[in-house]
């Protein structure tokens, strides 16, 4: 029996072990990703037979589930969801379903599956080595920005975030956010929850680093590794320092990519034209599509 409960700082850390058992490279199956957007999507979770379940209120206002994740049986987990939906007189719907997950649902429910996708939610997946090196003609623009930054600020430092300096990053963000947040609900939510992630950075075991010029923080990134992918959840920089964003991307990859990491997921663009242009300019190897899936009642009731 599923007993959904709210996601809080006290319980979110237990999710990590379930994420390590799945192969999806979308940001919806990461600790910080789930925590940051839990209020926006009214997310709740449940655990049953070594599977982790999430129930959310999706952007279309419908209650939906994400595909169960963990080392247990996916077929058994879907049967458990069917039972829950019957008991609660719900329709069966799934959100943020990656392409591999869509295949699982099609295999189980066949022609009873209907699905849509939203380009604004696609994740940008990059080759990790590309972000570390910016090698080749494709990345000449990024290299130019990095070279400009190095010329202007030759004494810059990359500093790994830890319990001793996280307070400095929070102070930087408190000054940064009021002047840079965009006037839309998603941007305001991201700013609010980014502060929470900073507050719980050590507790959640996240990765992070910042750029320092003349003793002052001018950029930072926070992420986590799941499987073979480094996820970049937060990336902020002062644009008045020319090349700061490009240098932050490169330095974060240089210092935080481990030998087992092949990809970097820099998440979606939320439909922001400027952000879309920027993320495309780094030449993703793939856009990770996500689907909203509904299943006809007759296929499972």
Structure at a glance:
The protein has helices at residues 16-19, 31-36, 74-87, 99-109, 128-133, 140-152, 166-180, 185-199, 244-256, 273-281; strands spanning 5-6, 44-48, 51-57, 63-65, 92-98, 113-117, 123-127, 157-160, 207-213, 216-226, 229-237, 263-265, 286-288, 290-295. The protein has 301 residues and is an alpha+beta fold. The strands form 3 sheets. Strands 8-9-10-11-12-7-13 form a 7-stranded mixed beta sheet, with helices on both faces. The protein has a 4-stranded antiparallel beta sheet with strand order 1-2-3-4, with no helix packed on it.
Write structural notes for this entry:
It is a single chain. The mean pLDDT is 95. This protein folds into two domains: 5-121 and 289-299, Aminopeptidase (3-Layer(aba) Sandwich), CATH 3.40.630.30; 123-267, 3-Layer(aba) Sandwich (Aminopeptidase). The longest helix has 15 residues, at 166-180. 35% of the residues lie in helices and 26% in strands. The chain is elongated. The strands form three sheets. Strands 8-9-10-11-12-7-13 form a seven-stranded mixed beta sheet, with helices on both faces. A four-stranded antiparallel beta sheet has the order 1-2-3-4, with no helix packed on it. By secondary structure, the chain is an alpha+beta fold. α6 (140-152) crosses α9 (244-256) and α7 (166-180) runs antiparallel to α8. It has helices spanning 16-19, 31-36, 74-87, 99-109, 128-133, 140-152, 166-180, 185-199, 244-256, 273-281; strands at residues 5-6, 44-48, 51-57, 63-65, 92-98, 113-117, 123-127, 157-160, 207-213, 216-226, 229-237, 263-265, 286-288, 290-295. Pfam families: LPG_synthase_C. InterPro entries: Acyl_CoA_acyltransferase, LPG_synthase_C, UCP018688.
